[in-house]
Amino acid sequence: MIGIAKNESKKNYVTLGFLGSYGHSQVGLGALPLAIDAVNKDPNLLPGLELRYVAADIGTKTPSNGSISFAACAIEKMTEMRDNGSIAFIGPDDTCSSEALVAAAWNLPMISYKCADTKVSDKRIFSTFARTLPPSSKVSKSVVSLLKAFNWHRFTMVVCQSHAWVEEVRDAIESLAESYGMIIADMKLYSDYIPRNIKIMDSIVFETYRSTRVYVFIGEHIALVDFVKCLQMRHLLDKGEYVIISVDDEIYDPDRKFNVVARPYIDPYLKYKSGDVEYIMGFKSVLKLTPSHPKNPDYQIICENIKRYSAKTFSVPYHNTIFDSISVPIHAMYLYDAVMIYAKALTEVINMGQDPRNGREVLKKIWNRTYHSVQGYDVFIDGNGDAEGNYSVIALMEDNTLNNTIQLSMQPVGFFQYNSSSSIPHLPNFKYYNENRPIMWAGGNPPRAEPICGFRGEKCINKTDWRIVITVIVVAFFTLIGFILAFKHYRYEQKLACLLWKIDGKDITLIPLGVNESDTEKALFNTKNEKINSSIAPDAAAELAPKRAFTTIALYKGNIVAVKPIYKKNIDLTRNIRKELKQIREVSHENIIQFIGACVDHNNVCIITPYCAKGSLEDVLANKDLHLDNMFVSSLVSDLLKGLIYLHDSDIISHGRLKSSNCLIDSRWVLLLSDFGLHEFKAGQEERKKDKEEKNLLWTAPELLRNPNCFPRGTQKGDVYSFGILLYEIIGKHGPWGNIPLTPSEIITKVKSYQNGKPFRPQTQNIDAEKYVLKCMESCWDEDPEQRPDIRYVRVKLKEMQAGLKPNIFDNMLAIMEKYASNLEALVSERTDQLTEEKKKTDALLHRMLPKSVAESLKRGEPVEAESFDCVTIYFSDIVGFTELSALSTPLQVVDLLNDLYTCCDSIISHYDVYKVETIGDAYMVVSGLPIRNGDRHAGEIASMALHMLRKINCFEIKHRRGEPIKLRIGIHSGHCVAGVVGLKMPRYCLFGDTVNTASRMESSGEAFKIHISEATKFLLERLGGYLFEERGLTTIKVISFVIRIFKKNVLK
Q: Per the database record, which ranges form the Protein kinase domain (predicted)?
């Protein structure tokens, strides 16, 4: 019988071995048969099988028998059970490491319900072990979770060092707390405690209360009572600033809920006295962590059944009076759970078709799983086979069921719940049993982990110090503000005093060039500028100056600049004028003319700005040869608006002199505003005829014309009016008032008069513009300044003009050029491809006429020097009887014949490393070994080619003389040769030397259909091998020659 077998009734059964210590608590042994009966009655567990058990009393470990003999007895019983067919073990009690090691060696599962041994958690050794009794260290997770729930990140531990389970819990809490970043302020240890040693507790309190507010107490209950008493005697618990978390290994019993405060085993009849009440109230600051009491509503029924099965199965004497007073130990529930989780795991193994005797497979179905305990709550077994356990928090709460004076008792207030979505839980979450009945804190709220000001007051300052700090901060703040303001004022004054804008008149060199200003004005300016160089060298002027200038220009630091004269003899640099000059120098915008500087020398006062090559907007509009399309108009209007918006947002506030002559156009066709600001600098100028011209007032708003005091500083609404006139001028291209038949004086008078309630404005009937443009234009020159839109709103109303265009003219022109460039690139690419193809054709033709290396040198323009070759092989051939054949043929027939013949020969030589030198009449000359040297192969290449020629000629047919063969005669010679290009026109690559003459003689002295070679060629061919020769004998050229008769086919290939 090995685990699963059949009895006499032919029914399958599974045998379970139970290892128990009957002397501990026989009442709880009934949980084993009770659980087995439950398994056998459950159709979902072990279907078709019956679970049985065999039990053995392994005795009780005592100091006399020791753990070794105790384990030996258990292993002996295990062996008997295994031999009799048991495939799993439940138990044993107390220590179980030796038994678990044996079970792992046998690969049989062992599930303990009472073993607290720490070593068996190592699954690398004890691979078939699990237990339903939670190890003592598991309470550490609940302790740390409670600390985290109330943000108690700093605590002190008070630990009894006389119990093994206490040390295990202490080490687990210490390790887990540190892993979560908590601080253990202190660790206090004490030995076995008796009430008369209360001074030990008082000493611990005295040494720690100044550096902690949270205590974790692990020890006997009697020591806890005195520890709380010592805290209360020092009045540390009165305000609820301290809390004690006590860890207890006994399950909370609701029937003894007050005894957790008193000391019943010392004074079981303790009565409330006047002095006892305050000590009991001290437990408001105590939270006890205990294993949770079973919450199964049928728990009492289960306990009665366990008692009944104990009497029935294990022969425990049954006496009603005795059994009623005996409680079923909690370990009986762990025993019940052990049987149930084994049955469920075994069922899963069998359903998966695995071996039920394989203990490791069975344990895999138990580890990292949650099971529902008979106690009424879910329990998780981790990867080490240890049950996590369930713990409750009990606290002193109101209890109306008591008849005592204070009506308080220790009651469960919370529990710890693991995250059900995680297969491997970490820390559980603290939960209240009843959210409406939280912990009754002594101070009304949970204590803090440390005081607000720190334990030494380092985080707070007293009221007196606060006043000092605030005073110091306020004084420091205002001092800093004052220093910053003083420093900024100093920097500002420094900038005013440094005169960065000032230009020395000697650095300005006038360029004499015809300008658009009057001769009188130019003469006036020249007479006043005595210190400014009046001219430069004519050559330099011709080189630097533009062909046409629109204002007085000069050379300053190598750049052409515009010079605007100020008609004042001298300038008194007051603070306001320096501020104006500094302000105008700091203006920077892409549509504002840059202020370079000013010259304030006596009789040489002027303003220097960059020169704009296109002149002013007035000049551009006056140029009839320049066509301004919509793109130009939109870009100019956009630049004008951007410049005005910048001025209106700056410290300058308004332009005041806005007109077309003050709108400059640079070389990139960007509009720049000029002649704004510097009002005091320009004030007091000598009167000029030009200033008196009322033409300059055509752009000025009517309210400014009526009130000369506002002019020329102007207003923003006045700038909007001027913009409206400018917009009319740009679109109409006929001046600011069009072709109206009035003089500027008459126009100014009508604008100022405002007769008949209708303002006098330019006529828009004949203006070719969109309606929204005309409407905006008319709103800009409204008579009431307040009704005119601000410049930003004008920009919004004219935004449609910029639709699809770049920010300025130059960018739009670049966009057009880019499109043209893209088309041009495609065209260039196409032409380049065509050129490449033609070049390839030219190169191919050139390579037919000259060797490739020679042709490349000639293409690079390099001279081709003659080159000497030590040994080459030269081929000559001609047609025997060609003269007679030519006499019998027409010239065209001769040409056709030679063309066909040489075409045939050319197709043959392409298969060999040879170079065709030339053809003269019927003569055909080929060489190998030059211009690219090929060792001694040149003789073989020529010989093989000659044989190929003869074979091909035998098949050649003359078109106009059918049946008449071509009699080819061939001569070959090898030797030294010089090659080079001769001539500049129609250059030819020619060979020179005796070798050429000898090869020619070999051909002329040969016979038709034979190859006549020299001794030198024969020598080379013999070295190569594969050729046969026939000696011809001496000839008149005094050279011993041979005739090739046989050529090996395999070599020819």
A: 530-805
